[in-house]
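We keep the chain:
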Amino acid sequence: MTKTENSRASVLALHGFTGCGNDFDCMRHTFPDVFFDAPDLHGTDIPEDFPQLLTRLESCFERLPEAQPRILLGYSMGGRIALHLALRLAQNNRFRQGDRLILISASPGLKSEEERAARRAHDTALSRKILAAPDASAFYAFWRTVPIIASQANIPEPWNSRILKSRAAADKTRWARSLETLGTGVLPSLWNKLGEINVETLLVCGENDAKFSQIAEAINTLLPHSRLVKIPGCGHSPQLENPAAFKAELNGKLHCADR
C-alpha cells in the first residue's frame, strides 16, 4: 500500500469477531500514507440484519475519497463479509478500474447445509457462553485460548495492550448478536459465486494457520484475478502478529496478474 502520485489510497477495512475499527490502528501505523475507514460491524443498540449491514458498507465504500486504488479489506469475519460485499459490487458493476480486494484469513463459508447447521449449533452454544461470562474481558480471555486464535498472544506492544483494552470496553451482547446475524453457519456459502468477483484480489494468511492457508489456496483457484501471500511466522492474525513482515509482503504485491 503506497501513496499514489496525487492522492492517498483509501481502504474500507472490516474487522473480525470480537474486533472493532480500532484493530486497524496497527495497519494505520504500518501504512501511514493510506486512508482507512474501519466501521464497527457489531452495529448499535438498534439491531441490524445482514442486508442492512451490506447496504451500509456499500455506502461506506462508495464514499471513500477519490483515489486509486480503492481497497476493500476484510479480516476473518470481516473477510467473509467483504466477500459478500465484493460479490454485490461486482454483480452491480460498481467496481471501477484500480479497485482491489484484500482478504486476510477469510472464508467464503461452509459448502453444505449439514456443515452450516452444525456451525449454527456451535455458535448458539458460544453465544450462551458469551452472555454467561461476567464481562467482555472474561470471555475474551477464554477466546484467546481457542487454538486458531491463540497465536494472538504473539501480537507485539503497544498493539496487544490496546486490543485488550478495547475488548474490556466492548459490549459482549453485540458479540453474541453477531453470531446470530454474521456467523459462518448463518451466511450462505459463496464458493460457487467466487468466479463472479472480477476484481483484483490479494489473499493473505499466516503460514502457521493451516486451516485458513488451505482455504486461501482453494479460493485462489476460483477467483479470476487473485494472488496468495503467506506471512511467515504468523497464525490467524498476520497483520497484527508480525506487522513488519506483513508490510514487507504486501508492498509491491497489490497488483495481481490475470490468470
In short: The domain at 9-250 is CATH 3.40.50.1820 (Rossmann fold). The two ends are 22 Å apart (CA to CA). The chain has one domain: 9-250.
